[in-house]
Design goal:
The complex is a heterodimer. By secondary structure, chain A is mostly helical. Chain A contains 21 helices and 2 strands. In chain B, the strands form 2 sheets. A 4-stranded antiparallel β-sheet of chain B has the order 2-5-1-6. The chains are: A mainly alpha, B alpha+beta.
Chain lengths: 421, 118
């Protein structure tokens, strides 16, 4: 504190603490076992608190990452010395030289990436419920606090806490080894699905908690990038496809909401679409064409890509999008996919063709219980100037909406239908 | 310029409730506040204190442990700074960004000047 050069103007990169949190927890868990992941989290929280005390007064050290790892490592060594963890640890791994191993620990980007990868597979262990998987990923790997997760999911901290407690319990019961991640690569599909769910949580348009929700999207992308850059994952086509899809969708994030209300794609200001995210998405999409594997993510990404490169809604290549939906139906024939397909179908074959399709779909499935079905059908009737039918489906849609935001959008359309007297 | 001691008090550590993201913001805000004061030459010293420690008393001719504080409040750090007068020291204290989050109390005390000692 005596000389000014202890106080250089070094700054931390954006989300440094949040990102490092997940990295260090992953590295430490390797030494204390997945049973004790909560202890690992406590160690890192204490380390960050220590950093706050030191750094706010003495300035940020030259290598903040190394500072954090050294502090966390020493704290872990102290805890390992305590017998209770020692026994738990040894019974789990039957190794005696952990101590020496940890003391010699050299931090490298590769090691961090490997440990984060393993942690991802641990969090997505098949016996853990989907809700808990996402909560664990956000808490452990992304360094979100319980309050932040709750705010992103529009739910209470108690709910998130319950999901975490349940997830950790399932983790303990499964007694997952942190060593055998190579075999766990079989679960790549589940990890990708969880990452995609995480992305969609953030992507659902809303004015509320916008910043934190966009961060969810970025975190999902960050996790997928770890998979893409890691050597252990050999078959990367699906990872690239998911990355392409997320980048291309994230590019349109800003344009979807204006003054608190939802903006449908045909009314979005395309100037607001993020060109650099679109380029990265296209780059990943090109990577996927190098292999013969066709995946759902790849088709969805290509559809998203067609939207991104169209200069206007009218200029969109609807015929190509329709044929992509036909391919998607081969892999995933669900009512929701058929519902989404009705939009390019209308552009190519006319609204009446889509209306007929949707009527068939309604009889063949329970899609009629979904507000989106009625909202879509209503839009076709509006364009066909069949106001009475449009009104009926808008009202049906409103009564089935759970989300206030969707109700607002449908009510706005309904108001426009009422003839001016 | 007069010298002041600022005792930063808190009940346990209010920082413990912050998320990693908020902790980082805390470092950046408080850090640049302290840095600013140093550059102005007002800050002579600032240190955080560990949460542990002992209280010693002299009683009946011997030194004993305790008595311990009845409240949970402890001094978690201090600033030693220069200001024109108490009012200015208080103004500087009020700008401490740590007040924005968590329950902190800062006691501002002028250091007594004794001829020939200071």
């Amino acid at each position: 504190m005596n000389s000014d050069d202890t106080h250089t103007s070094r700054q931390l990169t954006e989300h440094f603490f949040r990102n490092e949190y997940g990295k260090i927890v992953s590295v430490i868990t390797r030494y204390i076992g997945t049973n004790n992941v909560e202890t690992a989290e406590d160690i890192v929280q204490e380390t960050l608190l220590k950093a706050v005390d030191h750094w706010q007064q003495h300035g940020i050290p030259e290598n903040p990452q190394a500072w954090l790892y050294t502090t966390a490592k020493n704290r872990t060594l102290n805890i390992l010395k305590r017998k209770k963890y020692q026994t738990q640890y040894e019974s789990q791994y039957k190794q005696k030289n952990t101590h020496a191993e940890l003391e010699d620990l050299q931090i490298s980007e590769e090691l961090i990436s490997d440990e984060q990868l393993k942690m991802m597979f641990v969090c997505c262990y098949p016996s853990i419920s989907e809700n808990s998987q996402i909560a664990l990923m956000l808490k452990i790997l992304c360094g979100f606090s319980i309050a932040e997760i709750a705010s992103a999911f529009f739910t209470s901290t108690e709910t998130i806490n319950k999901r975490l407690v349940r997830g950790r319990k399932q983790l303990r019961e499964a007694n997952i080894s942190f060593e055998t991640s190579a075999t766990a690569i079989d679960n790549l599909g589940i990890v990708l699905k969880t990452i995609y769910l995480l992305f969609n949580e953030g992507y659902s348009p809303s004015q509320q908690n916008k910043v934190i929700r966009y961060d969810l999207c970025l975190e999902a992308i960050r996790l997928a990038e770890i998979l893409a850059n890691n050597k252990t994952v050999k078959e990367k086509t699906e990872v690239y496809a998911l990355l392409a899809l997320m980048y291309l969708n994230a590019a349109r994030f800003e344009a979807r909401v204006e003054d608190g209300t939802l903006v449908e794609m045909h009314q979005q200001n395309r100037q607001k679409w993020n060109a650099s995210l679109i380029n990265t998405g296209i780059h990943y999409l090109n990577q996927t064409t190098k292999s013969d594997v066709v995946s759902i993510y790849q088709i969805l990404a290509t559809i998203s890509g067609h939207h991104c490169i169209a200069t206007s809604f009218e200029a969109t290549n609807w015929a190509e999008i329709l044929s992509l939906y036909d391919s998607l139906l081969v892999l995933q024939d669900t009512p929701l996919v058929r519902l989404n397909r009705s939009i390019p179908l209308a552009k190519v074959k006319g609204n009446q063709a889509s209306i007929q399709e949707l009527k068939v779909l309604e009889n063949a499935s329970d899609i009629g219980n979904h507000y989106l079905f009625h909202a879509t059908l209503a839009e076709f009737y509006i364009q066909e100037k069949q106001s009475e039918l449009a009104r009926r489906h808008l009202q049906e849609g409103i009564s089935l909406s759970i989300n206030k935001r969707d109700v607002e959008l449908l009510e706005k359309k309904l108001k426009k239908l009422v003839p001016i007297q | 310029m007069k010298e002041f001691m600022l005792f930063i008090k808190s009940e346990e550590s209010p920082k413990a409730d912050l998320s990693p993201e908020q902790l980082q913001q805390h470092i950046e805000k408080v850090g640049s506040y302290i840095k600013g004061l140093m550059e102005e030459g007002r800050m002579k010293s600032a240190q955080p204190l560990e949460m542990e420690g002992r209280i010693l008393s002299y009683k009946d001719g011997k030194i004993i442990d305790g008595p311990y504080n009845e409240t949970k409040e402890i001094i978690s750090g201090y600033y030693h700074l220069l200001a024109k007068d108490l009012d200015e020291a208080i103004e500087i204290t009020k700008q401490d960004p740590r007040f924005e989050e968590g329950i902190w109390r800062i006691e501002v005390r002028p250091i007594k000047k004794v001829e020939g000692i200071n």
